[in-house]
Fold this sequence. Notes:
Its main location: membrane. By secondary structure, the protein is mostly helical. The protein has one domain: Sodium:dicarboxylate symporter (Proton glutamate symport protein, Orthogonal Bundle). The protein has helices spanning 3-10, 31-48, 50-55, 57-86, 89-121, 136-143, 151-158, 163-168, 172-189, 195-216, 219-234, 243-266, 272-278, 280-289, 296-305, 310-323, 326-342, 349-362, 372-384, 403-424, 430-437, 474-477. The longest helix is centred in the N-terminal third of the chain and has 33 residues, at 89-121.
Amino acid sequence: MNPQKSTAASSSPTNPTPANTSARKPFYSSLFFQILVAVVSGIIIGHLWPDIGAALRPLGDGFIQLIKMIISPLIFLVIVTGIAAVSDVKAVGRTGVKALIYFTAATLFALVFGLIVGNVVEPGAGLNIDPASLSQDALNAKTATAPPKDAGAFILGIIPTSVVGAFASNSLLQVLCFAVFFGAAIVVVGRERCMPVVSLMETVLELFFKIMGWVMRVAPVGAFGAMAFIIGQYGLGSLGTYALLIAACYGAALVFISLLFGVAWAYPRVPLWQFMKYTREEFLLALGTASTESVLPRIMTKLTNAGCSRATTGLVIPTGYSFNLDGAALYLSISLLFLAQAFGYNLDLGQQLAALGVLMLTSKGMAGVPGSAFLALSATAGALGIFPVAGVALLLGADRLMDSMRVVVNLLGNCVATFVVAKWEGQFDRDAMLRAFAGEGTTAEPALVPSQAKVPEGTAAAAAVEPSPEAVSPAAAR
């Protein structure tokens, strides 16, 4: 069965009133405009009054905490209800394997591309830094909360020792692991038999999206506080110290993003510029808060509304937050060469390939880990003996300046991964995507809970979701 045709045929609008007949809202009520004003205001406050800007950090941290409050249960509910809609455990397994294949290829390419840029630009050449002049204490303070793990420990860390502990610690990979088992159990026992549980979970999911809507109303406040703190704490003047490194990283990011545009158009036929316009509020909020976690619930909803199945979105996005950090991979490989060059070390091809292998392992699971970039670089330096581990402290002043690059590339890379995997698995409705991009059948906010049209269970089309004009209750949609 063709998932696009079956979804299009079975997805008659639940609300005949199109969005374009409603009164157009004034521009100042747009979340995008409000966040933009908040970010610009934060930059101005942080630059003119740095002490005040640094003191506004609790505003940004508070907003991130509100988002984290709902992330774990929301991901659990999205994945379980999505798997229950697919009704095919093998399809879920195939989706996970395909996602990991894509993640590995994308990360490897990002690391190799970063090494190429670092060799061509040579951002650290001529600095002649003495490692003894750098503070090991500052580096220890940055990385003390997250000791590096080897590959075995990382894999074991995906399996929760306690389900309650996984939710309490907001360990997304552990929550995802349990959600896959829970959803698979529903499929094996039978959706009809488990319908009371599924109905309850869909209702609770609607409640969580309602809470998310309330939290997003204070997003401009969070973006203002976070940006004022970053500029007030680190200042715009520090840009000059790392000018060539920053230029290399941001230049590499622009080229990488252009490649993502090509990938998105070549296979799933997604016009990525229209997608970025469709998700401009989420990208601007991620930039303002320097965190992709702040937009995880909304970006999952937007991808679902744009034709990706709920099960695929629920699996790919949370997994990609740990396994597909393209922006971080670019930064790590360029920074590694920057440090080696700054200390006068010229790495040959063999050393760079060895560093590539170590970075492939140390770059995984970086999302949400304090000082993760320093940990990855320290582990690489220690494993290969390229330069003193204390030398990583040289990046302490530049790390925050790279947040914007990492956030945009990480987020966009995971969105493209979702489209690619959904298309690969036959769970992508391009017509629904085009309707969402055109603003048809959607409100200013994304649909709270995707409606589920009646399609045969066990097919890929069962996972495809139509963007609904209003927040439709899952119970009402059945």
